[in-house]
Structures are given as structure tokens and as C-alpha cells.
């Protein structure tokens, strides 16, 4: 029985070391890619906001269908480039919370005080060190950020389309006014 407890303690120590290494790797990546990740997120926001507007303009201006398909394909790829990392980061956070819950329930009915102490230590480490990946501390990359990203993108697209419609309507009314002026000012 004692060898099983010792083996469990050794495995918990290894698990804790792996968790610590993973957490340090995440922080190192976050620090190394801090500025480039912020820049990349801004570029994705601009690209994913501009491409649907260009698609709308190409439909209005009756450009070739191949161009429209190309723009739609590029937009889908850009959206996947932002959706996949957000989903993966959210899943990592959910798995960490699941492990935290699992280790907390395991500690409640153990007889070994050493094993309980090791499990509590791991539980404490899991609760303090979150697996949240952020862009320089400005934005946590997760599905909540993705929702805000989509809301901002859709709002920007709607504003651009409204501006385009108003601009075209004003241009058409100015043309009609100039035609009316030229037709009424013609010499008799």
C-alpha cells in the first residue's frame, strides 16, 4: 500500500512539474509575440471588416463572379484564422477548470495526509495559474474576445454599407438636379 502512495506522490510531482513547464511556455510565448500578436489581431480586424464591404461593392458594381468568389474565400480563411485559436484557447481554459474540479473532488476522501497535501498543492497551483493566452495583456484570446471581434466587425461593415448607400443616393439626386437645371435653363 505504501508503494502505491509513494508512486502516486511521484506522479503528482511530475504532473505538477509538467503543468509548471506548460504555464511557463505560455507566458514565454505571450511575452515573445506580444507586439506582433496585437498587430496581427488589428490586421485581422481590418481585413475581415474590409473584405465583406469590398464584396458588397463588387456586387453593386457588377464585377466578375470570379472576383466575388475569391473575396468570399479569402474572407472565410481569415475568419478561420481567428476562430480556431480562440476556440483552442477556450478549450484549454475549460480543461484546466475541469482538472481543478477533478483534483478538488479527489482530495475530499483521501486517508493519506501526504497525498492530500500534494493534491491540495496541485489544486492551488491550478487555481492560481490560469491557462489564458493574451495579446500583450490587452485582450484575452478566447471566445468572448471572438464575440466582441465579430460584433465590432459587423458594426463596421454596416456603417460602411450605410455610408455607401447614402453616398450613391446623394450622387444620384445631384445628377438629377443638374439634369433638371440644364433642361429648364435651355434657351427657347
From TrEMBL:
Gene Ontology biological process: sensory perception of taste; signal transduction
Record localization: Cell membrane
Segments passing through the bilayer: 149-167
Pfam families in the cross-refs: 7tm_7
InterPro entries: 7TM_chemorcpt
Membrane topology reported for the UniProt record: Multi-pass membrane protein
Record has Transcription as a keyword: no
Gene Ontology CC, one term: plasma membrane
Keyword Transmembrane attached: yes
Chief localization: membrane
Keywords: Cell membrane, Membrane, Receptor, Transducer, Transmembrane, Transmembrane helix
Annotated protein name in UniProt: IP01917p
The species this protein was found in: Drosophila melanogaster
Gene from which this protein is expressed: Gr98a
Amino acid at each position: 500500500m505504501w508503494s502505491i502512495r509513494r508512486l502516486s506522490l511521484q506522479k503528482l510531482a511530475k504532473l505538477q512539474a509538467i503543468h509548471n513547464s506548460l504555464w511557463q511556455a505560455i507566458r514565454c510565448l505571450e511575452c515573445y509575440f506580444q507586439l506582433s500578436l496585437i498587430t496581427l489581431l488589428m490586421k485581422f480586424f481590418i481585413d475581415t471588416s474590409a473584405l465583406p464591404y469590398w464584396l458588397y461593392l463588387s456586387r453593386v458594381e457588377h464585377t466578375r463572379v470570379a472576383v466575388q468568389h475569391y473575396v468570399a474565400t479569402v474572407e472565410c480563411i481569415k475568419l478561420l484564422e481567428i476562430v480556431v485559436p480562440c476556440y483552442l484557447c477556450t478549450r484549454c481554459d475549460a480543461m484546466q477548470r475541469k482538472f481543478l474540479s477533478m483534483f478538488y473532488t479527489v482530495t475530499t476522501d483521501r486517508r493519506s495526509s501526504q497525498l492530500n497535501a500534494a493534491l491540495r498543492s496541485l489544486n492551488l497551483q491550478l487555481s492560481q495559474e490560469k491557462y489564458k493566452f493574451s495579446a500583450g495583456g490587452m485582450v484575452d484570446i478566447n471566445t468572448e474576445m471572438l464575440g466582441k471581434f465579430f460584433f465590432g466587425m459587423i458594426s463596421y461593415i454596416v456603417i460602411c454599407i450605410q455610408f455607401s448607400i447614402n453616398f450613391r443616393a446623394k450622387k444620384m439626386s445631384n445628377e438629377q438636379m443638374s439634369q433638371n437645371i440644364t433642361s429648364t435653363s435651355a434657351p427657347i
